[in-house]
Amino acid sequence: MERANNQFCADAGGKYCPCHLAHSGDCIKCSLIRGEKTCECKWQGVCIYNELNHNKVVPVQERKEVLCKVIETREMETNIYLLKIKIPSYLSRDLCEPGAYVFMKEQSRESGYFNAPISVMDVDEENNILEVVVVPRGIKTKPLVSCEEVIIKAPYFNGIFGLKEIKSNLNNKCVVILDGLSQVNSLKVIKRLIRNDNEVQVFINEDGKRLEIIEEKIKDLGVNIQLFNLHDKEEILINYIRNNNISFVYSCGLIYFNKHILQLVDNIDENIKFAIPNNNLICCGEGICGACTIRLNNCRIKTCKAQMNGREFLSNLK
Ligand code: FES
Predict the structure, then answer these.
(1) Does the Cβ of 294 fall within 6 Å of ligand 1?
(2) Which residue in 122, 82, 80 sits closest to 100, CA to CA?
(3) In angstroms, rounded to a whole number, what is the distance separating the alpha carbons of residues 17 and 48?
(4) What end-to-end distance do the CA atoms of the chain give, in Å?
(5) Ligand 1 pocket: which of 63, 304, 307 to mutate (most atoms <8 Å of CB)?
(6) Which among 75, 86, 114, 170 is placed 20 to 30 Å from 3, CA to CA?
(7) Measuring CA to CA, how many Å separate 215 from each of 209, 219, 270, 273?
(8) Cβ(195)–Cβ(98) under 8 Å?
(9) Whether the CB of 276 sits within 6 Å of ligand 1
(10) How far apart are alpha carbons 50 and 303 in whole angstroms?
(11) DSSP secondary structure, 73-132, as one string
């Protein structure tokens, strides 16, 4: 199996680029760094090859672990917890980005084995408070809901496939569709769409888990919510997309749900931009361990780093 060329990397040109992969000749973005003869990156940002070989960017800038105080832990529903965590101000802005997530572990653990990737639900930028939802299921997450302090490693950005599709909407009409616990990463998407003067309509699958806190926050943003389901109320969603000149859909559920929504959207118009959450297994988040690697178009893709649009991901997934 080949490694795909020209992958878009969520870290490319940012604070944490060039990363360890570039230094080892395994950059997912730059063909020259990988030892190929021509530049195929089609990248208009900071040249990673130049940074690495001419500016000699060493050592690798790594994300730091910081000990943070948990200021509130609340069981919102059976075994679903809201954690509010005081974070350093330098993290607040980055964590407001759509797709941002953090690694968290209990304060007594030194080993990175215990890092759990957790989606950012919301950030109070003024007071530097991070809000996350934790479902304690195993050795990594169970201790988090009883900690007074947690260790956070952040920011990571590839929590969504379709970041370009989200950020490129301006003065458009957009639909956000929520299903189950994946919805925790929808708020930052909705906020970004509103910031870019888009009109946003939210649909919630009434058959899935609903979180009151998310619905309240969406209403506080002035966004209308409609309920639907995939059995006998699908037409509500179809008619809305068909009749409102929708340019972008964010389907925020698990893969089977997102595939269903994509099919429905493509039946209306294949040009509607489409994004989904990245629900793949993530272990290191740095493109090193390989736990997140999937096969797409007969190529190996590290999904913790590689950015793609939701349609491309779902259409080519084997
Ligand atoms: S999670 Fe380790 S390589 Fe992606």
Answers:
(1) no
(2) 122
(3) 7
(4) 14
(5) 304
(6) 114
(7) 12, 6, 29, 24
(8) no
(9) no
(10) 25
(11) EEEEETTEEEEEEE--HHHHHHHTSTT-EEEEEETT--SGGG-EEEE--EEETTTTEEEE
Ligand 1 atom index nearest CA of 289 = 2
Is the four-CA dihedral 289, 90, 142, 160 of positive or negative sign? negative
Centre of ligand 1 to C-alpha 307, Å, is: 13
- Tokens 């919630």, located at residue: 204
Pair of tokens at residue 314: 């779902």
Tell me the C-alpha distance between 4 and 306, whole Å: 10
Q: How far apart are CA 218 and CA 187, in angstroms?
A: 7
CA distance linking residue 132 with residue 118, whole number of Å: 7
Condensed to tens digits (0 to 9), the pLDDT of residues 167-197 reads 999 999 999 999 999 999 999 999 999 999 9
Neighbour-count burial of 118, counting CB atoms closer than 10 A to its CB (0-12 exposed, 13-18 middle, 19+ buried): buried
Beta-carbon neighbour count of residue 165 at 10 Å? 22
Asked whether 150 and 107 are in contact (CB, 8 A), the reply is yes
Could you give the angle at the alpha carbon of 135 between the alpha carbons of 155 and 81, nearest 5°? 90
Which H helix or E strand runs over 193? helix 186-195
Widest CA span of the chain, in angstroms?
A: 60
Q: What is the pLDDT of residues 127-172, one digit of tens each?
A: 999 999 999 999 999 999 999 999 999 999 999 999 999 999 999 9
Distance of CA 24 to the CA centre of its chain: 26
Angle between helices 212-220 and 186-195 (to 10 degrees): 10
Q: pTM for the full model?
A: 0.94
- Specify the amino acid at residue 1: M
